[in-house]
TrEMBL record:
PANTHER family: DIHYDROXY-ACID DEHYDRATASE, HYPOTHETICAL DIHYDROXYACID DEHYDRATASE (EUROFUNG)-RELATED. InterPro entries: Dihydro-acid_dehy_C (IPR042096), DiOHA_6PGluconate_deHydtase_CS (IPR020558), ILV_EDD_C (IPR056740), ILV_EDD_N (IPR000581), IlvD/EDD_N (IPR037237), Sugar_Degrad_Dehydratases (IPR052352). It comes from Falsiroseomonas algicola. This is Dihydroxy-acid dehydratase. Keywords: Iron, Iron-sulfur, Lyase, Metal-binding. Pfam families: ILV_EDD_C (PF24877), ILVD_EDD_N (PF00920). Residues 365-559 form the Dihydroxy-acid/6-phosphogluconate dehydratase C-terminal domain. NCBIfam families: PRK06131.1 (NF004784), PRK13016.1 (NF009559), PRK13017.1 (NF009560). GO terms for molecular function: hydro-lyase activity; iron-sulfur cluster binding; metal ion binding. Belongs to the IlvD/Edd family.
Protein backbone atom coordinates (compact mmCIF):
# COMPACT_ATOMS: atom_id res chain seq x y z
CA UNK A 1 0.00 0.00 0.00
CA UNK A 2 1.01 3.64 -0.38
CA UNK A 3 1.70 6.22 2.31
CA UNK A 4 -0.73 6.08 5.21
CA UNK A 5 -2.24 9.16 6.79
CA UNK A 6 -0.91 10.50 10.06
CA UNK A 7 -3.42 11.04 12.91
CA UNK A 8 -3.13 14.82 12.52
CA UNK A 9 -4.19 14.45 8.87
CA UNK A 10 -7.53 12.91 9.79
CA UNK A 11 -10.54 15.07 9.01
CA UNK A 12 -11.80 14.56 12.58
CA UNK A 13 -8.56 16.11 13.91
CA UNK A 14 -10.11 19.51 13.17
CA UNK A 15 -12.85 18.74 15.68
CA UNK A 16 -10.92 16.84 18.36
CA UNK A 17 -7.17 17.25 17.95
CA UNK A 18 -6.45 20.98 18.12
CA UNK A 19 -6.06 23.15 21.21
CA UNK A 20 -8.74 25.81 21.04
CA UNK A 21 -12.10 26.65 22.55
CA UNK A 22 -14.18 24.69 20.05
CA UNK A 23 -12.09 21.51 20.32
CA UNK A 24 -12.34 21.79 24.11
CA UNK A 25 -16.13 21.78 23.75
CA UNK A 26 -16.10 18.85 21.31
CA UNK A 27 -13.90 16.73 23.56
CA UNK A 28 -15.84 17.58 26.69
CA UNK A 29 -19.11 16.54 25.05
CA UNK A 30 -17.61 13.17 24.10
CA UNK A 31 -16.59 12.76 27.73
CA UNK A 32 -20.16 13.68 28.65
CA UNK A 33 -21.35 10.57 26.77
CA UNK A 34 -18.98 8.34 28.71
CA UNK A 35 -16.14 8.04 26.18
CA UNK A 36 -12.56 8.68 27.17
CA UNK A 37 -10.22 10.77 25.08
CA UNK A 38 -8.27 7.62 24.24
CA UNK A 39 -11.41 6.26 22.53
CA UNK A 40 -11.62 8.93 19.85
CA UNK A 41 -8.59 11.22 19.70
CA UNK A 42 -6.18 10.43 16.89
CA UNK A 43 -8.40 7.63 15.56
CA UNK A 44 -10.52 7.45 12.39
CA UNK A 45 -14.08 8.44 13.24
CA UNK A 46 -16.40 6.16 11.28
CA UNK A 47 -19.94 7.34 10.63
CA UNK A 48 -22.34 4.41 10.38
CA UNK A 49 -25.27 5.69 8.32
CA UNK A 50 -28.15 3.47 9.45
CA UNK A 51 -31.50 3.30 7.64
CA UNK A 52 -33.13 1.10 10.30
CA UNK A 53 -36.79 1.72 11.05
CA UNK A 54 -39.72 -0.15 12.54
CA UNK A 55 -41.50 0.53 9.24
CA UNK A 56 -38.63 -0.99 7.25
CA UNK A 57 -38.94 -4.80 7.35
CA UNK A 58 -36.05 -5.18 4.91
CA UNK A 59 -33.77 -3.39 7.40
CA UNK A 60 -35.22 -4.72 10.64
CA UNK A 61 -31.89 -6.34 11.56
CA UNK A 62 -29.88 -3.14 11.16
CA UNK A 63 -30.00 -2.27 14.86
CA UNK A 64 -27.95 -5.40 15.42
CA UNK A 65 -25.83 -5.05 12.29
CA UNK A 66 -24.81 -1.53 13.31
CA UNK A 67 -23.43 -2.97 16.56
CA UNK A 68 -21.58 -5.63 14.58
CA UNK A 69 -20.05 -2.96 12.33
CA UNK A 70 -18.98 -1.07 15.46
CA UNK A 71 -17.29 -4.21 16.75
CA UNK A 72 -15.12 -4.30 13.63
CA UNK A 73 -14.34 -0.57 13.83
CA UNK A 74 -13.24 -0.91 17.46
CA UNK A 75 -11.13 -3.97 16.61
CA UNK A 76 -9.31 -2.04 13.88
CA UNK A 77 -8.58 0.93 16.13
CA UNK A 78 -11.29 3.29 14.91
CA UNK A 79 -14.07 5.14 16.68
CA UNK A 80 -17.61 4.27 15.46
CA UNK A 81 -20.55 6.66 15.63
CA UNK A 82 -24.03 5.68 14.48
CA UNK A 83 -25.99 8.27 12.49
CA UNK A 84 -29.65 7.42 11.74
CA UNK A 85 -30.80 8.42 8.26
CA UNK A 86 -34.08 8.56 6.38
CA UNK A 87 -35.40 4.96 6.02
CA UNK A 88 -36.60 5.05 2.43
CA UNK A 89 -38.88 2.03 2.58
CA UNK A 90 -40.58 0.57 -0.46
CA UNK A 91 -43.46 -1.07 1.36
CA UNK A 92 -45.18 1.85 3.04
CA UNK A 93 -44.01 5.18 1.65
CA UNK A 94 -46.55 6.95 -0.55
CA UNK A 95 -46.91 8.02 -3.25
CA UNK A 96 -43.60 6.23 -3.79
CA UNK A 97 -40.27 5.73 -2.06
CA UNK A 98 -38.58 7.04 -5.20
CA UNK A 99 -39.78 10.52 -4.25
CA UNK A 100 -37.40 10.32 -1.26
CA UNK A 101 -34.28 8.67 -2.74
CA UNK A 102 -32.71 12.08 -3.35
CA UNK A 103 -33.64 13.24 0.15
CA UNK A 104 -31.63 10.31 1.53
CA UNK A 105 -28.75 11.21 -0.79
CA UNK A 106 -28.77 14.80 0.44
CA UNK A 107 -29.06 13.72 4.08
CA UNK A 108 -26.18 11.24 3.75
CA UNK A 109 -23.93 13.88 2.23
CA UNK A 110 -24.77 16.52 4.84
CA UNK A 111 -24.58 14.13 7.80
CA UNK A 112 -21.03 13.27 6.77
CA UNK A 113 -19.99 16.84 5.97
CA UNK A 114 -21.35 18.50 9.09
CA UNK A 115 -20.02 15.86 11.51
CA UNK A 116 -16.42 14.81 12.35
CA UNK A 117 -16.46 11.74 10.07
CA UNK A 118 -13.33 10.34 8.43
CA UNK A 119 -15.07 7.44 6.70
CA UNK A 120 -18.55 5.98 6.29
CA UNK A 121 -20.28 2.62 6.49
CA UNK A 122 -23.60 2.69 4.65
CA UNK A 123 -26.32 0.30 5.82
CA UNK A 124 -28.99 -0.17 3.14
CA UNK A 125 -30.69 -2.63 0.87
CA UNK A 126 -34.33 -1.87 0.24
CA UNK A 127 -34.61 -0.59 -3.33
CA UNK A 128 -33.86 3.14 -3.03
CA UNK A 129 -31.42 3.05 -0.10
CA UNK A 130 -28.40 1.65 -2.01
CA UNK A 131 -28.44 4.42 -4.65
CA UNK A 132 -29.52 7.12 -2.19
CA UNK A 133 -26.74 6.33 0.28
CA UNK A 134 -24.12 5.87 -2.43
CA UNK A 135 -25.07 9.07 -4.28
CA UNK A 136 -24.66 11.09 -1.09
CA UNK A 137 -21.41 9.38 -0.13
CA UNK A 138 -19.99 9.91 -3.61
CA UNK A 139 -20.77 13.61 -3.46
CA UNK A 140 -19.17 13.86 -0.03
CA UNK A 141 -16.04 12.08 -1.25
CA UNK A 142 -14.93 10.33 1.96
CA UNK A 143 -13.82 6.69 1.98
CA UNK A 144 -16.94 4.54 2.36
CA UNK A 145 -18.10 0.95 2.25
CA UNK A 146 -21.62 -0.31 1.62
CA UNK A 147 -23.14 -3.07 3.80
CA UNK A 148 -26.07 -4.69 1.94
CA UNK A 149 -29.12 -5.76 3.95
CA UNK A 150 -29.24 -9.12 2.17
CA UNK A 151 -32.28 -11.04 0.90
CA UNK A 152 -34.88 -12.66 3.14
CA UNK A 153 -35.51 -16.41 3.23
CA UNK A 154 -37.57 -18.17 0.56
CA UNK A 155 -41.32 -17.89 0.87
CA UNK A 156 -43.44 -20.97 1.50
CA UNK A 157 -47.16 -21.62 1.15
CA UNK A 158 -48.97 -24.97 0.93
CA UNK A 159 -45.86 -26.74 -0.26
CA UNK A 160 -45.07 -24.11 -2.88
CA UNK A 161 -41.97 -21.90 -2.86
CA UNK A 162 -43.01 -18.26 -3.08
CA UNK A 163 -41.05 -15.28 -4.32
CA UNK A 164 -41.83 -11.89 -2.79
CA UNK A 165 -43.48 -9.51 -5.20
CA UNK A 166 -43.45 -11.88 -8.16
CA UNK A 167 -45.94 -14.31 -6.65
CA UNK A 168 -48.03 -11.43 -5.29
CA UNK A 169 -48.67 -10.27 -8.86
CA UNK A 170 -49.09 -13.85 -10.11
CA UNK A 171 -51.61 -15.00 -7.53
CA UNK A 172 -53.48 -11.70 -7.49
CA UNK A 173 -54.16 -12.25 -11.19
CA UNK A 174 -55.45 -15.75 -10.40
CA UNK A 175 -57.65 -14.31 -7.63
CA UNK A 176 -59.12 -11.77 -10.04
CA UNK A 177 -59.62 -14.51 -12.62
CA UNK A 178 -61.52 -16.58 -10.04
CA UNK A 179 -58.95 -19.41 -9.89
CA UNK A 180 -58.10 -19.10 -6.18
CA UNK A 181 -60.30 -18.09 -3.26
CA UNK A 182 -60.12 -15.06 -0.99
CA UNK A 183 -59.28 -17.45 1.89
CA UNK A 184 -56.32 -18.89 -0.02
CA UNK A 185 -55.14 -15.39 -0.93
CA UNK A 186 -55.36 -14.31 2.72
CA UNK A 187 -53.53 -17.44 3.89
CA UNK A 188 -50.64 -16.63 1.56
CA UNK A 189 -49.83 -13.50 3.60
CA UNK A 190 -48.24 -15.62 6.34
CA UNK A 191 -45.81 -17.40 4.05
CA UNK A 192 -44.56 -14.96 1.46
CA UNK A 193 -42.21 -12.92 3.69
CA UNK A 194 -40.65 -15.15 6.35
CA UNK A 195 -37.71 -13.18 7.74
CA UNK A 196 -36.10 -9.76 7.82
CA UNK A 197 -34.22 -8.85 4.65
CA UNK A 198 -35.04 -7.59 1.18
CA UNK A 199 -37.11 -9.26 -1.55
CA UNK A 200 -35.52 -12.60 -2.41
CA UNK A 201 -36.41 -12.43 -6.09
CA UNK A 202 -34.15 -10.76 -8.66
CA UNK A 203 -35.89 -7.46 -7.94
CA UNK A 204 -34.57 -3.96 -7.46
CA UNK A 205 -33.06 -4.57 -4.02
CA UNK A 206 -31.09 -7.63 -5.14
CA UNK A 207 -30.11 -5.84 -8.34
CA UNK A 208 -28.83 -2.71 -6.62
CA UNK A 209 -26.94 -4.61 -3.93
CA UNK A 210 -25.24 -6.62 -6.68
CA UNK A 211 -24.57 -3.47 -8.73
CA UNK A 212 -22.87 -1.88 -5.71
CA UNK A 213 -20.65 -4.93 -5.33
CA UNK A 214 -19.84 -4.97 -9.05
CA UNK A 215 -18.97 -1.29 -8.80
CA UNK A 216 -16.47 -2.18 -6.07
CA UNK A 217 -18.35 -0.65 -3.13
CA UNK A 218 -18.86 -3.75 -0.93
CA UNK A 219 -16.61 -6.46 0.38
CA UNK A 220 -16.37 -9.42 -2.04
CA UNK A 221 -19.48 -11.60 -1.87
CA UNK A 222 -21.37 -9.26 0.45
CA UNK A 223 -24.38 -8.58 -1.76
CA UNK A 224 -25.81 -12.11 -1.96
CA UNK A 225 -25.59 -13.27 1.68
CA UNK A 226 -29.11 -13.93 3.03
CA UNK A 227 -29.93 -11.50 5.81
CA UNK A 228 -30.51 -14.20 8.51
CA UNK A 229 -27.37 -16.20 7.59
CA UNK A 230 -24.50 -16.16 10.12
CA UNK A 231 -22.19 -15.01 7.35
CA UNK A 232 -24.06 -11.72 7.30
CA UNK A 233 -23.04 -10.37 10.74
CA UNK A 234 -19.49 -11.54 10.06
CA UNK A 235 -19.52 -9.53 6.84
CA UNK A 236 -20.77 -6.49 8.78
CA UNK A 237 -17.90 -6.79 11.26
CA UNK A 238 -15.39 -7.31 8.45
CA UNK A 239 -16.72 -4.14 6.82
CA UNK A 240 -16.20 -2.23 10.07
CA UNK A 241 -12.59 -3.38 10.24
CA UNK A 242 -11.94 -2.62 6.59
CA UNK A 243 -13.25 0.96 6.59
CA UNK A 244 -10.68 1.95 9.22
CA UNK A 245 -7.83 0.88 6.94
CA UNK A 246 -9.54 2.59 3.99
CA UNK A 247 -9.37 5.87 5.92
CA UNK A 248 -5.67 5.43 6.72
CA UNK A 249 -5.08 4.53 3.04
CA UNK A 250 -7.19 7.51 1.89
CA UNK A 251 -9.08 5.17 -0.44
CA UNK A 252 -11.69 7.70 -1.53
CA UNK A 253 -14.20 7.18 -4.36
CA UNK A 254 -12.11 9.50 -6.55
CA UNK A 255 -9.06 7.30 -5.98
CA UNK A 256 -10.96 4.09 -6.69
CA UNK A 257 -13.79 4.47 -9.23
CA UNK A 258 -13.28 4.50 -12.98
CA UNK A 259 -15.43 4.09 -16.08
CA UNK A 260 -14.69 0.38 -15.76
CA UNK A 261 -16.30 0.36 -12.30
CA UNK A 262 -19.52 1.78 -13.75
CA UNK A 263 -19.49 -0.57 -16.74
CA UNK A 264 -19.03 -3.51 -14.37
CA UNK A 265 -22.19 -2.48 -12.50
CA UNK A 266 -24.12 -2.26 -15.77
CA UNK A 267 -22.80 -5.61 -17.05
CA UNK A 268 -23.68 -7.36 -13.80
CA UNK A 269 -27.18 -5.88 -13.90
CA UNK A 270 -27.71 -7.11 -17.46
CA UNK A 271 -26.36 -10.61 -16.81
CA UNK A 272 -28.47 -10.83 -13.65
CA UNK A 273 -31.66 -9.89 -15.49
CA UNK A 274 -31.95 -7.08 -13.00
CA UNK A 275 -34.62 -4.51 -12.37
CA UNK A 276 -35.39 -1.74 -14.84
CA UNK A 277 -35.10 0.62 -11.86
CA UNK A 278 -31.35 -0.01 -11.89
CA UNK A 279 -31.01 2.03 -15.08
CA UNK A 280 -32.20 5.19 -13.33
CA UNK A 281 -30.17 4.50 -10.20
CA UNK A 282 -26.85 3.58 -11.81
CA UNK A 283 -27.04 6.60 -14.12
CA UNK A 284 -27.53 8.83 -11.06
CA UNK A 285 -24.69 7.13 -9.17
CA UNK A 286 -22.31 7.40 -12.12
CA UNK A 287 -23.02 11.09 -12.59
CA UNK A 288 -22.38 11.76 -8.90
CA UNK A 289 -18.97 10.12 -9.40
CA UNK A 290 -18.32 12.33 -12.44
CA UNK A 291 -18.40 9.35 -14.82
CA UNK A 292 -20.29 8.92 -18.08
CA UNK A 293 -23.40 6.78 -18.40
CA UNK A 294 -26.48 7.12 -20.57
CA UNK A 295 -29.19 4.89 -22.02
CA UNK A 296 -27.15 4.17 -25.14
CA UNK A 297 -24.27 2.77 -23.10
CA UNK A 298 -26.69 0.58 -21.14
CA UNK A 299 -28.09 -0.84 -24.35
CA UNK A 300 -24.65 -1.36 -25.89
CA UNK A 301 -23.54 -3.39 -22.87
CA UNK A 302 -26.84 -5.29 -22.80
CA UNK A 303 -26.38 -6.40 -26.40
CA UNK A 304 -23.04 -8.05 -25.63
CA UNK A 305 -23.67 -9.50 -22.15
CA UNK A 306 -25.73 -12.71 -21.86
CA UNK A 307 -28.34 -13.30 -19.15
CA UNK A 308 -26.96 -16.06 -16.91
CA UNK A 309 -28.85 -15.78 -13.59
CA UNK A 310 -31.75 -18.23 -13.72
CA UNK A 311 -33.88 -16.49 -11.10
CA UNK A 312 -37.46 -15.34 -10.68
CA UNK A 313 -39.07 -13.32 -12.18
CA UNK A 314 -36.91 -13.84 -15.28
CA UNK A 315 -36.90 -17.61 -15.58
CA UNK A 316 -36.88 -20.77 -13.52
CA UNK A 317 -37.96 -21.06 -9.90
CA UNK A 318 -34.73 -20.17 -8.09
CA UNK A 319 -34.53 -17.31 -5.59
CA UNK A 320 -31.68 -15.37 -3.98
CA UNK A 321 -31.14 -18.02 -1.31
CA UNK A 322 -30.50 -20.53 -4.13
CA UNK A 323 -28.23 -17.99 -5.82
CA UNK A 324 -26.15 -17.78 -2.63
CA UNK A 325 -25.88 -21.57 -2.35
CA UNK A 326 -24.89 -21.72 -6.04
CA UNK A 327 -21.80 -19.63 -5.25
CA UNK A 328 -23.32 -16.21 -4.79
CA UNK A 329 -22.20 -12.91 -6.19
CA UNK A 330 -18.49 -13.74 -6.35
CA UNK A 331 -19.14 -16.87 -8.42
CA UNK A 332 -21.57 -14.96 -10.63
CA UNK A 333 -19.00 -12.21 -11.27
CA UNK A 334 -16.25 -14.80 -11.85
CA UNK A 335 -18.39 -16.45 -14.51
CA UNK A 336 -19.09 -13.02 -16.02
CA UNK A 337 -15.41 -12.02 -15.89
CA UNK A 338 -14.83 -11.93 -19.71
CA UNK A 339 -17.29 -9.02 -19.75
CA UNK A 340 -15.82 -7.15 -16.76
CA UNK A 341 -12.96 -4.74 -16.20
CA UNK A 342 -10.94 -6.90 -13.83
CA UNK A 343 -8.47 -4.08 -13.13
CA UNK A 344 -11.16 -1.94 -11.47
CA UNK A 345 -10.33 -1.23 -7.83
CA UNK A 346 -12.65 -2.24 -4.99
CA UNK A 347 -13.02 -1.38 -1.33
CA UNK A 348 -11.08 -4.56 -0.49
CA UNK A 349 -7.92 -2.70 -1.49
CA UNK A 350 -7.44 -5.03 -4.44
CA UNK A 351 -9.03 -5.33 -7.85
CA UNK A 352 -12.18 -6.99 -9.11
CA UNK A 353 -10.06 -9.73 -10.67
CA UNK A 354 -8.30 -10.43 -7.37
CA UNK A 355 -11.58 -10.39 -5.43
CA UNK A 356 -13.16 -13.15 -7.52
CA UNK A 357 -10.09 -15.16 -8.52
CA UNK A 358 -10.91 -18.30 -6.49
CA UNK A 359 -14.72 -18.16 -6.71
CA UNK A 360 -16.60 -21.27 -7.87
CA UNK A 361 -20.10 -21.97 -9.21
CA UNK A 362 -21.80 -24.92 -7.50
CA UNK A 363 -25.02 -25.04 -9.52
CA UNK A 364 -24.81 -24.46 -13.25
CA UNK A 365 -28.57 -24.24 -13.57
CA UNK A 366 -28.85 -21.25 -11.22
CA UNK A 367 -25.71 -19.45 -12.50
CA UNK A 368 -25.51 -20.54 -16.10
CA UNK A 369 -22.28 -20.93 -18.10
CA UNK A 370 -21.74 -18.19 -20.67
CA UNK A 371 -22.27 -20.71 -23.46
CA UNK A 372 -25.64 -21.80 -22.03
CA UNK A 373 -27.38 -18.54 -21.06
CA UNK A 374 -31.06 -17.88 -20.44
CA UNK A 375 -30.89 -15.50 -23.38
CA UNK A 376 -28.04 -14.25 -25.54
CA UNK A 377 -28.46 -10.60 -24.55
CA UNK A 378 -28.89 -8.94 -21.17
CA UNK A 379 -32.26 -8.77 -19.47
CA UNK A 380 -32.99 -5.11 -20.25
CA UNK A 381 -33.34 -3.16 -23.47
CA UNK A 382 -33.70 0.51 -24.38
CA UNK A 383 -36.16 1.53 -27.10
CA UNK A 384 -36.60 4.92 -28.77
CA UNK A 385 -38.88 6.45 -31.38
CA UNK A 386 -41.68 8.93 -31.91
CA UNK A 387 -43.38 7.91 -28.66
CA UNK A 388 -40.17 8.02 -26.60
CA UNK A 389 -37.69 10.46 -28.19
CA UNK A 390 -35.37 10.25 -25.17
CA UNK A 391 -35.91 6.56 -24.60
CA UNK A 392 -37.91 3.97 -22.69
CA UNK A 393 -36.90 0.66 -21.14
CA UNK A 394 -38.24 -2.89 -21.09
CA UNK A 395 -37.24 -5.99 -19.14
CA UNK A 396 -37.09 -8.45 -22.02
CA UNK A 397 -36.23 -11.36 -19.73
CA UNK A 398 -39.59 -11.03 -17.97
CA UNK A 399 -41.70 -10.43 -21.09
CA UNK A 400 -43.59 -12.74 -23.43
CA UNK A 401 -41.19 -13.14 -26.40
CA UNK A 402 -44.14 -13.08 -28.82
CA UNK A 403 -44.99 -9.54 -27.71
CA UNK A 404 -41.53 -8.03 -28.21
CA UNK A 405 -42.61 -7.21 -31.74
CA UNK A 406 -46.19 -5.99 -31.60
CA UNK A 407 -48.53 -3.38 -33.05
CA UNK A 408 -51.84 -2.66 -31.35
CA UNK A 409 -54.43 0.03 -30.55
CA UNK A 410 -53.98 2.17 -27.45
CA UNK A 411 -56.32 1.99 -24.47
CA UNK A 412 -55.43 5.16 -22.58
CA UNK A 413 -55.70 5.87 -18.84
CA UNK A 414 -55.00 9.47 -17.82
CA UNK A 415 -53.73 8.54 -14.35
CA UNK A 416 -53.75 5.65 -11.92
CA UNK A 417 -57.11 6.61 -10.44
CA UNK A 418 -58.58 6.40 -13.93
CA UNK A 419 -56.93 2.99 -14.42
CA UNK A 420 -58.28 1.66 -11.14
CA UNK A 421 -61.78 2.93 -11.93
CA UNK A 422 -62.12 1.58 -15.47
CA UNK A 423 -59.73 -1.36 -15.88
CA UNK A 424 -62.21 -4.08 -14.90
CA UNK A 425 -65.27 -2.48 -16.49
CA UNK A 426 -66.83 -5.26 -18.63
CA UNK A 427 -67.57 -2.61 -21.26
CA UNK A 428 -63.94 -1.49 -21.59
CA UNK A 429 -63.00 -1.65 -25.28
CA UNK A 430 -59.91 -3.83 -24.90
CA UNK A 431 -58.54 -7.06 -26.37
CA UNK A 432 -55.37 -9.04 -25.90
CA UNK A 433 -53.89 -7.10 -28.85
CA UNK A 434 -54.49 -3.73 -27.22
CA UNK A 435 -51.68 -1.65 -25.72
CA UNK A 436 -52.54 -0.36 -22.24
CA UNK A 437 -51.23 3.20 -21.83
CA UNK A 438 -50.85 4.96 -18.49
CA UNK A 439 -49.70 8.56 -18.14
CA UNK A 440 -49.22 11.11 -15.34
CA UNK A 441 -46.87 8.65 -13.65
CA UNK A 442 -43.39 10.02 -14.33
CA UNK A 443 -40.91 11.91 -12.13
CA UNK A 444 -43.18 14.97 -11.99
CA UNK A 445 -46.51 13.40 -12.83
CA UNK A 446 -46.53 10.78 -10.05
CA UNK A 447 -44.88 12.63 -8.43
CA UNK A 448 -41.75 10.56 -7.95
CA UNK A 449 -42.33 8.05 -10.74
CA UNK A 450 -44.29 5.39 -8.78
CA UNK A 451 -44.16 1.67 -9.53
CA UNK A 452 -47.41 1.67 -11.49
CA UNK A 453 -46.01 0.41 -14.78
CA UNK A 454 -46.92 -3.26 -14.22
CA UNK A 455 -50.56 -2.48 -14.94
CA UNK A 456 -52.91 -5.36 -14.13
CA UNK A 457 -54.50 -7.25 -16.99
CA UNK A 458 -58.20 -6.32 -17.36
CA UNK A 459 -60.34 -8.87 -15.52
CA UNK A 460 -62.33 -9.89 -18.56
CA UNK A 461 -59.10 -10.79 -20.37
CA UNK A 462 -57.80 -12.73 -17.35
CA UNK A 463 -60.95 -14.85 -17.47
CA UNK A 464 -60.18 -15.54 -21.14
CA UNK A 465 -56.75 -16.87 -20.15
CA UNK A 466 -54.69 -13.79 -21.08
CA UNK A 467 -51.68 -13.37 -18.77
CA UNK A 468 -49.56 -10.81 -20.61
CA UNK A 469 -50.08 -7.90 -22.98
CA UNK A 470 -48.11 -4.81 -23.97
CA UNK A 471 -48.31 -2.09 -21.33
CA UNK A 472 -46.69 1.31 -21.67
CA UNK A 473 -46.16 4.22 -19.29
CA UNK A 474 -43.84 6.88 -17.92
CA UNK A 475 -43.92 5.02 -14.59
CA UNK A 476 -41.48 2.51 -13.12
CA UNK A 477 -42.35 -1.04 -12.10
CA UNK A 478 -41.24 -3.25 -9.26
CA UNK A 479 -38.17 -5.27 -10.06
CA UNK A 480 -40.08 -8.30 -8.81
CA UNK A 481 -42.67 -7.82 -11.58
CA UNK A 482 -42.91 -9.47 -14.96
CA UNK A 483 -44.71 -8.86 -18.22
CA UNK A 484 -44.25 -6.92 -21.44
CA UNK A 485 -44.12 -3.53 -19.76
CA UNK A 486 -42.50 -0.56 -21.51
CA UNK A 487 -41.45 1.90 -18.82
CA UNK A 488 -39.72 5.24 -18.13
CA UNK A 489 -41.05 6.82 -21.34
CA UNK A 490 -39.16 10.11 -21.71
CA UNK A 491 -40.01 12.89 -21.83
CA UNK A 492 -42.89 12.08 -19.49
CA UNK A 493 -46.47 13.05 -20.23
CA UNK A 494 -46.57 15.64 -17.42
CA UNK A 495 -44.09 17.87 -19.26
CA UNK A 496 -45.73 17.43 -22.65
CA UNK A 497 -43.90 14.42 -24.03
CA UNK A 498 -45.60 12.53 -26.88
CA UNK A 499 -47.19 10.20 -24.31
CA UNK A 500 -49.44 13.12 -23.30
CA UNK A 501 -50.88 13.18 -26.83
CA UNK A 502 -51.85 9.52 -27.25
CA UNK A 503 -55.55 8.84 -27.77
CA UNK A 504 -57.66 5.69 -27.60
CA UNK A 505 -57.33 3.68 -30.78
CA UNK A 506 -53.97 5.15 -31.88
CA UNK A 507 -51.71 2.39 -33.16
CA UNK A 508 -48.50 1.84 -31.19
CA UNK A 509 -45.65 -0.23 -32.61
CA UNK A 510 -43.13 -1.92 -30.32
CA UNK A 511 -40.09 -3.45 -32.02
CA UNK A 512 -37.60 -4.50 -29.35
CA UNK A 513 -35.16 -6.32 -31.71
CA UNK A 514 -34.72 -3.03 -33.58
CA UNK A 515 -35.04 -0.95 -30.37
CA UNK A 516 -38.01 1.07 -31.66
CA UNK A 517 -41.16 2.44 -30.04
CA UNK A 518 -43.41 4.49 -32.30
CA UNK A 519 -46.80 6.15 -32.22
CA UNK A 520 -48.27 5.64 -35.68
CA UNK A 521 -49.91 9.05 -35.97
CA UNK A 522 -48.87 11.51 -38.68
CA UNK A 523 -46.96 14.62 -37.69
CA UNK A 524 -49.68 17.05 -38.78
CA UNK A 525 -52.13 15.44 -36.37
CA UNK A 526 -49.50 15.43 -33.61
CA UNK A 527 -48.94 19.16 -34.14
CA UNK A 528 -52.68 19.79 -33.74
CA UNK A 529 -52.67 17.80 -30.51
CA UNK A 530 -49.62 19.64 -29.19
CA UNK A 531 -51.28 22.98 -29.84
CA UNK A 532 -54.34 21.88 -27.89
CA UNK A 533 -52.41 20.39 -24.93
CA UNK A 534 -52.25 22.34 -21.67
CA UNK A 535 -49.87 21.58 -18.78
CA UNK A 536 -51.43 20.00 -15.67
CA UNK A 537 -52.16 22.23 -12.70
CA UNK A 538 -49.37 22.08 -10.12
CA UNK A 539 -50.54 20.24 -7.00
CA UNK A 540 -47.62 20.92 -4.63
CA UNK A 541 -46.70 24.45 -3.57
CA UNK A 542 -44.47 23.85 -0.55
CA UNK A 543 -42.12 21.45 1.19
CA UNK A 544 -39.90 18.71 -0.13
CA UNK A 545 -42.20 17.73 -2.99
CA UNK A 546 -42.29 21.28 -4.33
CA UNK A 547 -38.49 21.47 -4.29
CA UNK A 548 -38.31 18.04 -5.90
CA UNK A 549 -40.62 19.10 -8.75
CA UNK A 550 -38.52 22.21 -9.39
CA UNK A 551 -35.27 20.25 -9.63
CA UNK A 552 -35.85 16.63 -10.70
CA UNK A 553 -34.41 15.46 -14.00
CA UNK A 554 -36.13 13.05 -16.39
CA UNK A 555 -35.79 9.26 -16.22
CA UNK A 556 -33.09 9.07 -18.90
CA UNK A 557 -30.95 11.43 -16.79
CA UNK A 558 -31.30 9.50 -13.52
CA UNK A 559 -34.07 11.48 -11.75
CA UNK A 560 -31.49 13.28 -9.64
CA UNK A 561 -31.97 16.86 -8.44
CA UNK A 562 -30.11 19.34 -10.61
CA UNK A 563 -28.62 21.27 -7.71
CA UNK A 564 -27.24 18.05 -6.20
CA UNK A 565 -25.91 16.61 -9.44
CA UNK A 566 -23.96 19.60 -10.69
CA UNK A 567 -21.69 22.37 -9.47
CA UNK A 568 -18.33 22.71 -7.77
CA UNK A 569 -17.55 20.51 -4.74
CA UNK A 570 -18.97 21.83 -1.48
CA UNK A 571 -16.16 23.16 0.75
CA UNK A 572 -15.43 21.75 4.17
CA UNK A 573 -17.25 23.55 6.99
CA UNK A 574 -15.49 26.24 8.97
CA UNK A 575 -15.01 25.42 12.65
CA UNK A 576 -15.06 28.53 14.79
Amino acid sequence: MGTRKRPDELRSHRWYGVDDLRAFGHRSRMLQMGFSEADFRGKPVIGIINTWSELSPCHFHFRTRAEEVKRGVWQAGGFPVELPAHPVTEQYMKPTSMLYRNMLAMETEELARSQPCDGLVLLGGCDKTPPGLVMGALSMGLPFIFVPAGPMLRGNWRGKTLGSGSDVWKYNAELRAGNITEAQWKDMETGIARSFGTCMTAGTAATMMLACEAMGLTLPGASSIPAPDANHPRMATDSGRRIVDMVWEDLTPAAMLTQGSVDNAVAATMAFGGSTNAIIHIIAMARRAGLELDLERFDTISRRVPLIANLRPNAGEALMEDFFYAGGSRAFLKRLSPHLDLTAKTVSGGTMGEDIADAEVFDDDVIRPLNRPIQAEGGLAVVKGTLAPKGAVIKTSAADPKLLTHTGPAVVFDNYADLKKRLDDPDLDVTADSVLVLRSSGPQGGPGMPEWGMMPIPQKLLKQGVRDMVRLSDARMSGTSYGTCVLHVAPESHVGGPLALVRDGDLIRLDVPNRKLDLLVDEAEMERRRAAWTPPVRRYERGWTSMYLDQVTQADEGCDLRFLEAGAPTPEPDIY
